[in-house]
User: Which sequence fits this backbone?
């Protein structure tokens, strides 16, 4: 049977997770109360929760070309000019996992900002429970608009006292793809880290070039963190990206985690793999230190 063309590689990886026991998962109502999305499937009871002690964190609005975009931010309460890290979310909206990741980054000393770049549809993506209802919304997001939204987020972070000369970006699933796209767009970016971001896009008129096609245009070093057992992003596509970047003498590194599925860092999903997730987080920190985002 041919794959549904609307099913991008990040979604294929999500929908083919190995069987799991329902024990150890929240009820749907508990997951919603805790602020998680339902479209990604069952939510683990043992999610990682990062407090706001020593942080300023909350919601804000960022001026974009056609309105105001909601963002979630977190920063150290004591830092006057912290580096800035953008958090590019998955397709599920600005839910609790992405907010927690933003706080984890702030604990490392940065002003971390997660923009809700799907806000224009007027729908709270975290409240949609079926992937099939999400896809038409997120697949209609033009790359030009996305890049403009990310630029606006950087400008906002600078206006809040963030040091955008030490700018990084980290993203997960579709957000990982967006890391590659942004690294080809912004010459002011110091470094990017893509967690299992799709490298080849299905045909879509609003996505002119996939990450692999943008290999010659990369303007910042990117670390790619991928799962060997990701059913939507085969290792061969990661190797092809690595070769394309090497051919154009671009700085990038890849780590492929044996046996890890798509979404191995997402501690709220059955796909979570603690060992791979913890190592990947350490690799991210080392990468940001190496390229001057983290001191």
Assistant:
């Amino acid at each position: 049977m041919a794959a549904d063309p609307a099913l991008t590689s990040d979604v294929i990886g999500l929908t083919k997770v190995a069987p799991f026991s329902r024990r150890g998962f929240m009820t749907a109502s508990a997951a919603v109360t805790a602020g998680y999305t339902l479209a990604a499937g069952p939510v683990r009871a043992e999610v990682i929760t990062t407090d706001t002690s020593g942080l300023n964190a909350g919601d804000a609005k960022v001026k974009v070309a056609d309105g105001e975009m909601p963002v979630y931010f977190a920063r150290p309460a004591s830092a006057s000019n912290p580096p800035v890290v953008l958090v590019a979310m998955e397709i599920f909206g600005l839910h609790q996992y992405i907010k927690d990741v933003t706080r984890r980054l702030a604990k490392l000393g940065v002003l971390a900002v997660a923009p809700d770049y799907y806000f224009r549809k007027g729908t709270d993506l975290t409240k949609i429970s079926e992937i099939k209802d999400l896809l038409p919304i997120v697949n209609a997001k033009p790359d030009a608009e996305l890049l403009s939204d990310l630029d606006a987020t950087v400008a906002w972070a600078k206006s809040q006292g963030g040091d955008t000369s030490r700018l990084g970006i980290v993203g997960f699933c579709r957000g990982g793809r967006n890391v590659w796209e942004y690294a080809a767009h912004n010459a002011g970016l110091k470094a990017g880290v893509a967690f299992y971001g799709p490298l080849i896009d299905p045909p879509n008129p609003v996505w002119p070039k996939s990450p692999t096609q943008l290999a010659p245009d990369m303007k910042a070093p990117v670390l790619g963190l991928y799962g060997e057992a990701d059913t939507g992003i085969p290792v061969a596509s990661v190797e092809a990206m690595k070769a394309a970047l090497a051919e154009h003498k671009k700085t990038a590194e890849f780590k492929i985690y044996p046996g890890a599925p798509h979404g191995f860092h997402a501690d709220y999903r059955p796909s979570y793999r603690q060992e791979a997730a913890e190592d990947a987080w350490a690799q991210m920190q080392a990468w940001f230190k190496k390229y001057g985002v983290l001191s």
The mean pLDDT is 94.
